[in-house]
Write a structure and sequence with these properties.
With 297 residues, the chain is α/β, with parallel strands linked by helices. Helices cover 39% and strands 16% of the residues. Helix 6 packs across helix 10. Bound molecules: guanine.
Length: 297
């Protein structure tokens, strides 16, 4: 079997075009343009790249954006004061603090200081809690983007065995919640694996849907998956490659070429999940702007 490619770039393009229309209709109806405030602490090169992609996405769909760039020496108090000012600013619809933060800052503490009504990442405990009990919320962008891909390609999830590798608060954990809930879009029997899981293959081999978000190149090999599995590779790893101008290339967590021969569907890296994450951030920011005018729930 040769897997069909899940083209995240194409689906993100379609989604972004629809969102651009939605934003223009919102503005034509007399409302202020949605505004996303991004907070960057320090100069992590990957964070700078991701923020660049988010800024360009905002420009493309007509969402205003601005990045508050704070030094990596900023204290927790100063950072939270800045966030408080954005919470209180009625012209700010969405707030995104780019992670990871320098080690002297607690991401939990910082995320909790964001007004949950402006938490367009869906990381605030209020939003994670609402997701867990099937209440309308800002869904974490990467899992939400993966569900958009399932919908677009009519990939069934209900009653399948879904295995998530990686239990981060950004991807693995909310992905497992969304896959497993009985009342929302998932309804899959869900296993979540992490670095303490014994015999990873014994779990991945039975997955109808395998979502890998471990941040470890080449973690999942063809012999670890079931014939015909749907493989969603969330990993974005920089590995040294002197044949490229940048000196590195991006690879996922899966052995793409070998798994492609065995899976039924697969996401490439880059061009799979990544563009959908950004599109979902745009969707959440527009939703935050709408909710600030018309509380929707
Ligand atoms: N770092 C890596 N991914 C993300 C994300 O989706 N949001 C934020 N805020 N930081 C990240």
């Amino acid at each position: 079997m040769s897997a069909k490619i899940i083209d995240g770039k194409k689906v993100a393009d379609i989604t972004m075009n629809l969102l651009k229309e939605d934003v223009e209709n919102w503005v034509k109806a007399g409302f202020r343009r949605p505004f996303l405030k991004v907070v960057q602490v320090g100069n992590d090169p990957a964070s700078t790249t991701y923020i660049g992609a988010k800024t360009r996405a905002c420009q493309r769909v007509g969402i205003d954006t601005d990045t508050a760039h704070l030094p990596d020496t900023v204290s927790a108090k100063e950072l939270k004061e800045a966030i408080k000012s954005f919470n209180e600013d009625p012209t700010v619809d969405g707030i995104l603090v780019q992670l990871p933060l320098p080690s002297h800052l607690s991401a939990h503490d910082v995320i909790e200081s964001i007004d949950h009504k402006k938490d367009v990442d869906g990381f605030h405990p209020m939003n994670v809690g609402r997701l867990t009990v099937d209440q309308p919320t800002f869904k974490s962008c990467t899992p939400a983007g993966i569900f958009e891909l399932f919908n677009y390609y009519s990939i069934p999830v209900k009653s399948k065995h879904a295995v998530v590798v990686g239990a981060s608060n950004i991807v693995g954990s909310p992905m497992a919640i969304m896959l497993s809930r009985e009342n929302a879009s998932g309804k899959a029997t869900t296993t979540i694996c992490h670095k303490f899981t014994k015999d990873l293959t014994s779990h991945t081999i039975s997955a109808d849907i395998l979502v890998v978000a471990a941040g470890q190149p080449n973690l999942i090999k063809a012999e670890m998956i079931k014939e015909g599995a749907v493989v969603i590779d969330v990993g974005i790893n920089r590995v040294a490659d002197e044949t490229t101008d940048k000196g590195y290339k991006l690879v996922g967590d899966c052995d793409y070429d070998a798994i492609k021969q065995k899976a039924s569907w697969i996401t490439p890296v880059p061009g799979g999940v990544g563009p959908m994450t950004v599109a979902m951030l745009m969707k959440n920011t527009l939703l935050a702007a709408k909710k600030s005018i018309y509380p929707l729930d």
